[in-house]
Structure formats: C-alpha cells, structure tokens
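for the record, two folds in this file. i put them one after another cuz i was lazy. first one right below, seq on top, structure tokens after. the second one comes after a little note so u can tell where it starts
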Amino acid sequence: MTDVLDGKIAVVTGASSGLGRAVSEILTRRGAQVFGVARGEEQLRQSMIDVAGAVGEQRYSASDVSDSAQCAAAVQKCVDTLGGIDILVNVAGSHTLRHTAEIADDEWAHDLAVNLNGPFFLSRAALPHLLERGGNIVNVSSIAGLEGQAYSAGYCSAKHGLIGLTRAMAMEFTGKALRVNAICPGGMMTPQVTGFTFPDGVDFDLVMKVASPRGLMEAEDVAKMVAFIASDDASAIHGAVYSVDNGKMA
C-alpha cells in the first residue's frame, strides 16, 4: 500500500491539523505529493514540514476556503508548482453549537461559507485540471449530513448540502474521466471535537445522541478511507456517500 498513490498530486484543505493533517500524512505515505491548504500559515507550514520533510512555501497555500478568489489562487499555485492536480480532498470545516433561535446572520453565513461554499469554490477551480488528468474529488461531509443534530442547524444544513453537491457533480460528470465521492465521518479525536464548547441551557441527552457507542475514532482511521477512495483501487466508486462513523448510523 505504500505506493498506491505514487505520482499523484493532491490538494488537501484543513491540512494544518486534525483530519486534514492525517489525510496529508496518509497520502504522502502512499506516494502522493500533497499541497496543503489552511488559514493559519505558520501552523500549516509546520504541518507540511512534519508530513513531507523540509518543503518550501510552494507546497502549501495559507488561504481562507470561504473566499473564492483565495481558493482559485491556491489551486493555481499547486498547478504552477507541481504540474497539475489528480486529487482534491475537501476537509476544512467548522462546527459551532448554537441555539437555533439565537444564530446571528453572520454566524449562519460563516457555517455555510466554510462547510459548503469552500468545497464548491475549490472544486470549481480544480475541475479543469482534474478532468485533464482523470482525477477525483473526495468531499468530507459528516454524519451531520445524514441526520439531524441538535444545536447544529448551520452545520447540518451545510453538510447535507455538501452531499447534494457531491451527487450533482457525480451526475454531471458521469461521462467524463472524473470521480466525485463523499465520506461522512462520526466523532474523531481532533481539536474540533475535543475543543467543543456548549451554549448555556443545552440538553446534553440530545447532544449525546450523535455519539457512537464505540466512542471516538482516530483521525488516521478516517484518513485511510479517504486514501482508498482517492486511489485507482476505487476506480469503480463514483457518486458514493460512505459513513465512516464507528457504527453510529447502524
């Protein structure tokens, strides 16, 4: 399995920590060249050094995925530096628990911008390059894209939308050498999950309905699924949505 992605060029968002970093590590380990995207430049730079050894600035882009121009620039930087794109993994996301009646307009817009607009902006920019090389997109949705979760109206809406985007693109490009798929992780040992804060007055029985009886997963376990779907071993997988959730949805 060490060279199953040998020669592939992968753009991974959210690459500075959590699942994005784990995906970057697994893809690199299996032979891919990874171009990392995340907002915080110093943490991203260090992550890319840790993942792929000493690399120059050209191997990452400190970009806000909610900004379409920054997404387009990040994609172009990868193409200019590495010569193309074979894989786009849209990992970057944001989940804040809020009482629905108290969600401000800017908070709602932020939830959609990071979790849905970002994957669209990056996919749109990468499509010509992916089509040229017969590449693929792996969108990281969530079990929140398959079920309702309390205090997560914005996040659930965006993640449901990301599944819709995945299926729409899969249908549109059925006749092309491009694959588009999504995975829906459950709870993982990542900073986003372990750093959750709760608004006053939440019903913790409702919050815990999202938990798997097997507990939290390691990010690397989910990253291995991403690596498989992104590889040529999954050449028959197109338009699929996979739960990777320690049995939660069962």
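(here's the note) second protein begins now
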Amino acid sequence: MTITTRPPLGVLRQFSRAVFADRLIGDELMRMTMARVDVDPSASSASVTDLMVSFVRSWRAVAREGRQEPALFSDAALISALPPPPDDARLMLLLVDVMGFTPAEAARIVGFEGDPAGLLQQGRAGLRLEDDPTAVIIEDEPLIAADLRAILQRIGVQVTGEARSAAEAVRTVSIARPDVIFADYNLDGRATGIDAVLEIQQDHDCPVIFITGYPDRVLQGDEIEPDFVISKPYTPNNVRAAVVHCLDARRA
C-alpha cells in the first residue's frame, strides 16, 4: 500500500508517534494540532500531503506559543515540556525513510524550498549510533529474522537475542536486556505481537519498533497499540532511521 492511498489519519498517527517514539505523547500532539488544522481528513478532496503540511505548520505554531509562559495543565504547558520539533533534515528523514513519502512530498510538508535530495542526505548523514546498542528480534519467520539481523549488524547494532514466540520473547529479553526491540506485529498465532511486548515492558523498558504490512490496521487510536511502526516491505534505510531516531527520542 502506497502512502498516497492510505487513510490520512492513520498516516498522521504513525508520524506523530514516530517523532517521539511514544504512543501517548504522539496522540496528544496529534489531538492538539488537529484542533487547528483546516483540512478535513474525512473529505474526499483531502490529500495525505495536504493534511501533513497543515499538521507540521500547526505543530510549529503551538510549539512557539508553548514557550510563552503557558498556564499550568494546559495544552501549551504540555507542548512546552516536550522537545521542540526536529529540524528540517530530521523531519525529512522521518517522512521519507520511515513514512514512505517521496523527497518532493516531504520537502513540501516541511516547507523546505531547496534541494530535497540534499536535505535528505543531510538527515541521513546526521544519524549516529552511540554506545554500541543492542537489539532483540521477535519474529517467527526465519528469513525475515535473518534479514533484519544482517541489516542491524551492518549498521552497528549487535543482535543479542532472537525469539519466535511470545513466551520465548519474554525469556530472551529478560536475559539480553536490549537497547531496542524489533517485533513482528502478527506473532505466534496471536492477534498481535503487542501481547509479548506488554509483558516484556513490565520488567524492561526500551523502544520497540513494530513491523507490519498493514500499518493502518494497527494504528486506529485504540487503547493498546505500538509506539513506533515501520511498514513491510522495509529497506535498510527504514531500519537505520527507525533505530537511531528511537534511541535519540529516548535520550531526549
């Protein structure tokens, strides 16, 4: 499924969560900014790109207002407690390498009038892994697990454990204590791979990157959902951007 045919709210929810690698913060950001967006996502004439343009503009406006002595417990107070919007290069990276927009579409969303390819290259060049991070892969398809392991090792992430079932995942993570987890959303015959991650996070809190061929089915605004999602088929650039950004967001 291409980005242009996906439901606008699903795309926006994925992006908003990806920025902070956090479902709750991302959904609050989406709520606050959507209150100011002048594009109706349910209208047939509303494009995904139009909605994203309005979202980024509104987010920047709310962030500016949040720095002006916000009232306690207000939306502005929440915004002021968050890191500011990433710079254009990081936003371009997220939009292209995580979300699947073209460089031209991403430049329009960001409001960048220069060379999109140059800005994307700047974003990719700015990705830096620190402290030799480790990962656990939760995936019941051996070929996909092997592919992920190879990509992660090439970009400098040590894979310290793999699991094919929810029970095995809990045991593996409790021993490996990774910096980041890659998890298949559909796992071991369960409705979702979140079952395993929810149990894991009771004992070990780290970023979790879910991989799914149907992101909009798992990002509906329900109570229990992933913080960070990349779509199948993925590329090495998708994996690298997701890992580095998740770890950066956790350090922020």
